[in-house]
Design brief:
- With 219 residues, this protein is an alpha/beta fold.
- Helix content is 38%, strand content 17%.
- The chain has seven helices and nine strands, in the order βαβββαβαββααβαβα.
- Strands 3-2-1-4-5-6-9 form a seven-stranded parallel β-sheet, sandwiched between helices. A two-stranded parallel ribbon has the order 7-8.
- The longest helix is centred in the middle third of the chain and has 21 residues.
- The protein is globular and about 50 Å long.
- The two termini are 17 Å apart.
- The relative contact order is 0.14.
- The mean pLDDT is 93.
Length: 219
């Protein structure tokens, strides 16, 4: 088992956070989780609750532990092309706030979930995540950026129907690279990758993990 890490998490009540936080706590890490007052009951026992607004760093930045690993999970749920405006007003705005708070706290590592790219669909979503990656790279904080395409789990299973299509695409050289880049990742495996990233932080610049790295934990 690795040494305990002090982790500050935004978006801890969401799809990914709901799986990540209990595992971090069970493994002995010190977890601080940002939440609005109405959502604090959704956080697991053992998490230190920090009340604030993910879009406003001033509402919580004084409560971010010095030198922590900052994990940013805020994002519009069930993204689709019709939510393009929200990608900028919520996803990108929350990254700006998180980076301000992380810099204020002297965070040693910033962990962010981006998206596999390039891709033939979801252009506004990808553009927002690319803009966020640029902000992270230029912040000066060592960072790990994970680039899944779709994370399979409860309420997020419909792409299982596409597995035969993926298999065929991976068999043909012209489409194999794209099929691997836009591959599916199971939720428990994705959480494994997040925990590995938290426990083995990037020490300088920015580490990017694609679908193959996430699946194999090869980093």
């Amino acid at each position: 088992m690795s040494d305990p890490v002090t982790v500050f998490v935004t978006g801890g009540t969401g799809y990914i956070g709901g799986q990540l936080l209990p595992r971090l706590i069970a493994q002995g890490h010190r977890v601080y989780a940002l939440a609005r007052p109405a959502a604090r009951a959704k956080l697991p026992f053992g998490a230190q609750v920090v009340l604030g607004d993910a879009l406003d760093a001033r509402s919580y930045q004084t409560q971010v532990p010095r030198g922590c690993t900052f994990v940013h999970l805020v994002g519009v749920s069930h993204p689709n092309p019709g939510k393009a405006a929200q990608f900028f007003s919520v996803d990108l705005a929350s990254v700006r706030a998180s980076l301000d708070a992380a810099l204020n706290a002297g965070a040693r590592h910033f962990v962010y979930i981006s998206v596999a790219q390039p891709a033939p669909v979801m252009q506004a979503y990808i553009a927002t995540r690319q803009a966020a990656e640029t902000l992270i790279r230029t912040s000066g904080i060592p960072a790990t950026i994970l680039r899944p395409w779709y994370v399979l789990g409860p309420g997020h299973r419909w792409p299982i129907l596409l597995r035969p299509v993926y298999w065929l695409a991976e068999c043909f050289p012209p489409t194999a690279r794209t099929a691997h880049r836009l591959g599916l990742v199971k939720l428990d495996r994705f959480v494994d990758a997040l925990i590995r990233a938290i426990e083995s932080p990037a020490t300088q610049d920015c580490r990017v993990l694609d679908v193959s790295s996430i699946r194999s934990l090869a980093f």
